[in-house]
Task: structure prediction
Amino acid sequence: MIKILGRANSINVRKVLWLCEELNLAYDREDWGRGFRSTKEQEFITVNPNASIPVLIDNDFILWQSNSIIRYLSNAYSGKHIYPDNNKTRAKIDQWIDWQGIELNNSWTYALQHIVRKSPNHQDIALVKESINSWNNMMTILDKQLEKTEYYIVSDHFSLADISIGLSVQRWYLTPFEKPDLTYVKDYYDLLSQRPAYLKWGNNGKN
Result:
């Protein structure tokens, strides 16, 4: 049995939950993280020394880092329709998953901490504006990619990249600040909302 450690309203946990829904995978989930059991407890540190969620436990196999987890589950549980074996197709999917985890994720960190989480350590307004500008710039890059494909991130087929980036698009829309009008990003957001798995897990939180 697959076990997932992490609160269901975490953006990184929701990647895993959304994928499990897409693949019809059964699992048990335990609440860990902000508002629940502390990830600094020794029981959690034993499975993830970084004290971060999610953690996947698949029988005796333990894995952390959300993007690594969704890649593993796709490989292990008949996910070739969204994470194909073809080297070039998979490389493009990985490119956008890594872009989300590095470029896009880093762009929003300061703004999100200030606007949503009210962090006392993120109160420099100049840095907030810089983060917002960077975030909007990343979304403009995404908009240009979606203009090329006209559907999903890599092609006209839903892929593993859309889980990571789809949740990031939702976070951008739900965080209150001034945004550019990005037609293709909006169309993409509407397209994702037609997927039952997204409506169940992708649209249930923003933290």
